[in-house]
Each structure stands twice: as C-alpha cells, then as structure tokens.
Amino acid sequence: MIVKAVMVPHPPIALAEVGRGEEVKISATLNAFKTAMKEIADSHPDTVIVLSPHAVMYRDWFNVSSGKKASGSMARFHAGSVKFEKEYDTELTALLDRMFEQDGFSAGMEYDRDKSLDHGTMVPLYFLDQFTKDYKLVRIGLSGLSLPMHYRLGQYIKAASDQLGRRIAVIGSGDLAHCQKEDGPYGFKPEGPAYDERIMKDMGNADFKALFSYSPAFLDACMECGHRSFVIMAGILDGIRVTPHVLSHEATFGVGYGIITYDIGGEDESRHFLEQYETEEKKQMEAMAEASDPYVRLARQSVSYYVKTGLVLKVPDGLPEEMLGERAGCFVSIHKYSSLRGCIGTISPTKKNIAEEIIANGISACSRDPRFNAVTEEELPFLEINVDVLGKPEKIKDRSELDVKRYGVICTSGYKRGLLLPDLEGVDTVDQQIAIACSKGNIDPDDENLEMERFEVIRHV
C-alpha cells in the first residue's frame, strides 16, 4: 500500500518567510520540491510518514511521535507566522508500538520527550500543504543504531501499513553533506562533495543495498544528516520495484540538497536488500573468524560461550605459550555491521595470564558495556572481534609526543581516567584523540591538572 516515496532536504531558507529573497538562490530545489510534493498529493495518501533527523533522537532507540496531534512553527527561524497543526495516524502508531514491544525491537512512543514538530518535518510539509492537507501524519526519528537496524525499522513500518491497508506516502527528510564550501556554515572537507556524488548516484539508481556500505567514520566526516532517513525509507520499500526520478541537486550554501522521487511498482523478490546484505556479512564474518589468530579466536570463544550459556569459558588447551605465561592489559572490541557493539578492557593486567584477561574482557565487552544492550545469540554470526594487547604505559609531558596511529592515550585528572586505543577509524588528529579520551573519563581537555600517558598495542584480528 506504499503509493509514493520521496527523498528531500529540509532547508528552512527554502521557505519564503525565512529566506526573504535568499531562497531564489536554490530555485532548482524549490521547483523540485513542488514537483515532488504534487506527486505525493496526486497519489492520494491516507497517511504521510516523515522520517526526520531532527525529531527526537536517541543513541539506542527509535522514537515514534506520540499523541493525537502535534503543532509547531518556524519561530526559531524568525518566521513565527508559519505554523502547523497535524493529526497523527494513531491507529498506525499504536500498531507499530505493539509490534516493537512484541519483538523486543528498540523503538516506540515510550520516550517521546518533545511533542512539537521539528523543521525536518515542517519544511517538507510546507510544500506538501500547498497541494493537499488531506492526510494524517506519522513522524519517526533516527537513532545511533546501525544502518541495518534503520532498514529493519522500515520493514516494520511497511508491515504495519500493509496490515491496516493504508495508502502510505513516505518522505525521507535529510540534507546531504554539510561541509562543501569554505564559506559555508561548516567549512569545507573533501568528504562533503564525495558523499553527495556517491549518495545521489546510489539513490538515483535506487541501489538501496549500497546504503549499507557507507562507514560510520565517513558519514561522520562528511557531516550528513539524512543518510539514516534514506535507509529507513529503503526498508519501507523492501521487496518493491521502484522507478527513481532525480529532480535536483544543489549545494549553493555549502550544504547538499538532493530531491529524488520514486514511482512504486509491484513486488520484486530481487530487492530484499537487508536479507542479501546479512547473508554476505555472515559469510564474511565466518571467513574472518576462520583466518583469525589465537588471541581473537579465544575472545570469540569466550563471547559465544558466555552468550549461549552464561558461563565463563575455561582456558582451552593448545594456546601459544605467551598467552599462558605472560601478563598484560588488553581490550576486546566487538563490531557489528561496521559499528561498535562493545569494547571493554584493562589498562594493567588483572588476571594471571593474557588468556584469562582476554576471556574476562570478552565477557565484559559483550555483556557489560554500559553503552549497549547485551549481545544476543542471534547476533553472534555477524560479530567482528579484535583484541588489543597493551604495552606498558609511559608518562608524557605534552601532546607533541603522541601519534594517533602508533600510540593510544590515557588521560587522568584526579580520580578520573579515560583511555583511547590507537589507530581508530575516524580519529585522525591528536586533538581528537585527547578529546575523546577525556570525554570517556568526564575530564575537561583543558584541565590544568590533566596528565597523559601513551602506550603501544599489538592488535590481533
């Protein structure tokens, strides 16, 4: 029952009341907006689902806006006369809530802390309302969860819509890269135009499977805000044949604005992209596990055994002598779908040998990292596990003695302590490294009592 899908940006300046003449500089975007929204209106949807980066967002939860209706205005953009009041499709949101709770999926209306409409929702509706106001709204935020989890959320939305027989139009709201001009609000980074070129190609070809291949570090570097909206939209269109129409792309103000519409066809079994991705990912993880060294194999054994039984693995026979006869601190890092899933370690040894250190930290990484829920048995085939064995830390006088590729850093102030491993994707400067390590220990990087140590690691993959 999906009748239309569109990918649009949400620049407040596109509204005449906000732009006050400046909006003419993005005339291609304005014209494309009107075309896209007229197409939605012509599809006569019962409900419009807006996927917005500026709705309530949590690291580990997808927020579905609650209540019977919501209002908002563009007052924060000095256009308080532009106001909205929308009725929610409460039957659809209630069904989604029940489905999420039944499956233990991290989404729902339980934590909806901000009832007002956000500009990621209002800007597209400003243009849609010029053609129709005869629809109900569902507004859903993004999260810090993995891209496949965003796609799976879309599959839930599709299933709920089908169950109710709704005519659904989907708006994937999101600007592209924000760092495309030196004189733009966020300056220039080469990742900016690289992202725009890549995403416009992938979305323009309706190659939704390619959306999983964007690494978290690259998405952070290019400063995009819409990628996860597009992934949810792709999940809503799972198994459906679509015909894309690229209407516009501009980066006039240093922020990318892309508009693409999708005509909806019939079922297409070749377009179940999450299923395809997970099959390939599982094979890749199996190959990596097979090729891993004894340190990583032991960590994987420890994680798997604990997740399945709740018990601590005994040190197995046949390990290299240095794992049994030497002591060292170590970190066990777990990734799933290229995103961190858990990382716990010890700076100094706490067990009688490295093997026991790895077993203990593997258990902690999969079950006691406060940033994540415990790893489940269903996740085990998709986990990438690494082990870093730490060398002895040495005190340094200043940051000039650091090298993000070679050394990790320990930052200490009084009883507070934060650590960051070396050679991490997305950490390119010493300042970044220190800032992240300090944030882990709740330390001010400019604290006059800040002390730093550096250490090297042997990384096992």
Mean model confidence by pLDDT: 96
- Low-pLDDT sequence parts: none
Cα distance, first to last residue? Answer: 46 Å
Rg estimate, integer Å: 24 Å
Instruction: Report the sheet with the most strands, covering strand number, pairing sense and barrel closure.
Output: 6 strands, mixed
Order of strands across the biggest sheet? 7-2-8-1-10-9
Which oligomeric state applies? single chain
Broad structural category: alpha+beta
- What amount of the residues lies in strands? 15-25%
How many separate helices?
A: 13
Quick one: how many beta strands?
18
- Proportion of helical residues: 25-40%
Descriptive key words:
single chain, 461 residues, alpha+beta, 6-stranded mixed beta sheet, 13 helices, globular
Written account of the structure:
This protein is an alpha+beta fold and 461 residues long. 34% of the residues lie in helices and 24% in strands. The chain contains 13 helices and 18 strands. The chain has helices at residues 16-19, 27-42, 90-103, 119-128, 147-164, 191-204, 216-222, 227-236, 273-291, 294-309, 321-325, 354-367, 430-440; strands spanning 2-8, 47-52, 62-63, 69-74, 79-87, 107-108, 136-141, 168-173, 240-250, 257-267, 330-336, 339-345, 383-390, 394-396, 408-413, 416-420, 451-455, 457-460. The strands form five sheets. The protein has a six-stranded mixed sheet with strand order 7-2-8-1-10-9, with helices on both faces. It has a four-stranded antiparallel sheet with strand order 12-11-13-18. Strands 14-17-15-16 form a four-stranded antiparallel sheet, covered by helices on one side. Helix 2 packs across helix 4 (119-128). The longest helix has 19 residues, at 273-291. The mean pLDDT is 96.
